[in-house]
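Escalated from tier 1: adenosine-5'-diphosphate holo job.
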Amino acid sequence: MSFRTSKQNGVVVVDVDGQLIVGNRQELKQKVLDELEGGERKFLIDFTNTGYIDSSGLGVLVSLSKKIREQGGELRLANLNEDLRTLFELTKLDTLFNIADSRDAALSAF
Amino acid sequence: MSFRTSKQNGVVVVDVDGQLIVGNRQELKQKVLDELEGGERKFLIDFTNTGYIDSSGLGVLVSLSKKIREQGGELRLANLNEDLRTLFELTKLDTLFNIADSRDAALSAF
Amino acid sequence: MDLPDRGNGRPSREGTHFALELPSDLRLIDPAIGYLAGRLRDYGYEGSRLTLNFRVGVSEALANAMIYGNARDPAKRVRVEVELEWERVSVVVRDEGDGFDPGEVPDPTLPENLEQPGGRGIFLIRELMDEVDFHGCGNCVRLVLYRQEPLPRAS
Amino acid sequence: MDLPDRGNGRPSREGTHFALELPSDLRLIDPAIGYLAGRLRDYGYEGSRLTLNFRVGVSEALANAMIYGNARDPAKRVRVEVELEWERVSVVVRDEGDGFDPGEVPDPTLPENLEQPGGRGIFLIRELMDEVDFHGCGNCVRLVLYRQEPLPRAS
Ligand SMILES: Nc1ncnc2c1ncn2[C@@H]1O[C@H](COP(=O)(O)OP(=O)(O)O)[C@@H](O)[C@H]1O
Ligand SMILES: Nc1ncnc2c1ncn2[C@@H]1O[C@H](COP(=O)(O)OP(=O)(O)O)[C@@H](O)[C@H]1O
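Tier 2 regenerated the structure:
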């Protein structure tokens, strides 16, 4: 499991490879908070290569989204597979997040 | 751990990613034997991306080398890191195998 | 894979059981779930029941056992016992804590809880697993998942 | 990593111990070794003592316990107990077999054995580990590796 960060059209894009779970979520959190501190305001997390997310992973997404909003920024999510969509629906987090079908759709909507 | 096969200048090149150990050595063995059966005679195993090899992994290399020689073919090894060199030296298998410093050196010597 | 031959190459319908014992180290959850899911896959389990319900449900139980039951002390262990059968798999996760009564945990899907970072673990276990028993064995939880989705529960 | 803080970020010199119990499934060796080596790395072990001596030595002991001790029966377990100290790490690998006496295993480096596919496991354990005890505990082997290479053995 690892996180890759890149910058596209002024948006910080994070690719989550593997799981986003209790054992590694702090890494993602720190990475995004560092960028936020560095002045970035637009964030996209891309789940194309993500295996599964547990409740701690969801928790990190919730708290990042809040922190980014507090700084006047925005967090979007893209490329959730069927399992991840179900997970967001079960927890009603699909109502909290801005979820795009593709990376391009997410990027162009910022 | 996984094995990638490609063909270069008439040589079947196998890249071993991760470990070559008791849990996955049959996969490598089968892959090489299938190519041998298909008529291939020149084989190179490249260890650039290999983590560690255990006694079963060494055993598979020994028996493949033998099978390939019996068919008039040749097996070469390339890109052993320091740990792997030590392992081959400890077991004296460095005297049995044709070990090249680089893939190119191995390929051009066939 | 270097495993005993199963004859016809298809999973036998005969059940199997096995156990794992792990130090309380959250980094072990990913490889443990990877292994367990692989065993289920070999046994013909597939689809979202495997990749979502099983992986996330069992992951939550392991995390809670390590974090709450064992207070993240790596010298304390989590024991995982698996009964893998044709129709269903049962997983018992036991920690070295005092056990707990999940009782009425707050519903994390209520609007006032939606922005809370925590509180979704037990909820997900209950949503994703077909049977959940926190009581039968004290400091442990027993999870059961059927291979096929059971008929809709009357709820 | 979401682990208890170690204060100054450097490994403490205080020792730690932990245990794993695994079904006899050869696919578990890679993740188990990955985990154990990670624990040693966190604790400041490094270089070929870690990546070669430790990983290969312990791997051989796990494989033998699963294959010979437990006859590859996944319902039978291998228990790994680790005492991780500043100067050295000790690993006890126990299986459910009858134990064995490695006695005089043939030297796999002799010209007549060099082309044998098997017979290098015990040899490698002895070459790579600083102390090896097959006797103390019956169906188990105790391996000790020092952080630093000990003074050359008189041999
Ligand atoms: N194995 C356990 N041992 C003791 N307490 C537990 C255990 N599992 C869960 N709990 C308790 O149940 C509460 C709810 O857990 P959960 O729904 O997973 O949410 P979270 O972990 O985010 O708090 C935990 O905060 C903890 O107090
Ligand atoms: N844990 C064990 N329990 C019983 N017998 C064992 C165990 N470990 C090793 N042996 C015996 O020792 C022999 C030598 O083992 P080893 O040197 O690893 O070579 P190989 O596994 O290639 O035969 C094995 O063939 C087996 O008979």
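Chain A has a mean pLDDT of 96.
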